[in-house]
Amino acid sequence: MGRIYAWFGGLTTGMKVLVIVASLVLFAVLSPLITPLAALTLILCVLVVAYRILRRRPFRGPGILLLSSLVVLLVSSGVSNALYGTAEEQANSGRNSQATSEPQKARQQPEPEESRAQSAPPETTVEVAKSSPENTQEQTQAKPKPKPKPKPAPSEKNRLHYDKTVTVSRVIDGDTVEVTPSVNGVADVRLIGVDTPETVDPSEEVEPYGPAASAFATKELTAEKVGLEFDEEKIDQYDRLLAYVYTEDGKMFNEELLKKGYAQAYPYPPNTKYEDKFAAEQEKARKADLGIWGLSRDEQCKLADRGNGIGEGTPGCAGSSHNHQDSKAAPASSGSDLYDCSDFATQQEAQAQLLPGDPYGLDADSDGKACEDLPDSSSASASSSASATGSAQPSASPSAPSSPSGSPSSPDPYGDWTCEEIGGGPYKVPRGSPHDADGDGLACE
User: Fold this and answer.
1) Which of the following is catalytic: 198, 207, 255, 349?
2) Which among 56, 57, 159, 190 is annotated as catalytic?
3) Which of 99, 116, 189, 296 has a CB 3.0–4.6 Å from the CB of 241, allowing a cystine?
4) Domains plus CATH for the chain?
């Protein structure tokens, strides 16, 4: 130390200042290294001083070194903190610089094709701030909901099965319309499977509920675009198109007429594609007394007989003795098997029992002739009695069996109807029927 003092004392004042400044600069630069060395020296000095005190030995030298190392430690740590900050701040600074450099590197490197393919769709953008502790919340723009594809209008959906698409130019009556453009030169369209009350036939009176049916058709169809669906037969005897008519909402107008009671079901072979469906809709309207089904019996008797239990010629209506061959349905009866063609010897005998609605099922082809396979009366037995019986009434052979108690073995197909309501006669019935006054098995003689 003496030599250092002697060397320093021999320097000029300027050199002394320069040495002092250089020493301070070197101290400041090496302060991070000097600090732990000073701390270690301080600890050693403390141990030496403590040992000397316990041994009751002088500790002046170690004490001076202890104080010197303490001063150096304080100064070097202060300088180090001032120049480089604390260790925690240095660690945070390192993490921040690393976090900042990583996004920059990511931006500089192009994203691989596979990563772009697996990334979120263009509609979704997610931005996450990671650069500092203050930006800890994620800002996410939600993916917008895709716009639903517009559903096709019913007309477009159902038009796929239409045979033709036309516009109704005029409504003639409830079940007949005129369309444009015409189809193969035919402009009039008759709705299949339904019959509304007559309004335009000059040879007949306007039938009850006919104007209402025509008004409904006019309101719903005039100037409207409709689809036509054909069945087996496309043209009728009056040169009209036969079609099922669909409105733009996809509903079949033929069916709508039946649902609301504007028409009767009128199945006419071979166009019977929807016969069962029409019958079901008519039954619903009948039970609800809609339209023609809510008319009085007298008004219903003015309608056409289409085999539905109403109309001119049906039991209970004037003129019911006439055989309307347009009828397609028999009166409700559990005794429809009372007769069959095997019960008669000649066609004339079977013809005498062909009742309105054909409850016995004798007219298989609905042409108005019963049991056509049976021989004619002229080719039957030459017996005059058999011939006379065949021309007037069925032979006595098909007598209805009776139970031991004398009650009918099968129910009377006409129930409580009177002979006036049934019309005509005689008719074969089970023994004991209220219509068989003399018990011979024949009613309404």
Assistant:
1) 198
2) 190
3) 189
4) 2-87 (no CATH), 154-290 (2.40.50.90)
The helix (H) or strand (E) run that includes residue 94 is helix 87-108
Cα 127 to chain centroid distance, Å, stands at: 41
DSSP 168-230: EEEEEETTEEEEEEEETTEEEEEETTEEPPP-S-TTSPPPTTHHHHHHHHHHHHTT-EEEEE-
pLDDT value, residue 94: 60
Which run of H or of E encompasses 241?
A: strand 241-246
Selected catalytic residue, list 207, 240, 256, 281 = 240
**Active-site residue flag, 306:** no
Q: What global pTM score does this model have?
A: 0.41
- Residue 69's pLDDT is 79
pLDDT < 50: residue spans in the chain: 115, 117, 120-140, 151-159, 320-337, 381-410
198 assigned to active site: yes
DSSP codes joined into one string, 400-415:
PPB-TTS-BSS--TTT
Token pair listed for 98:
């690393």
107 is catalytic: no
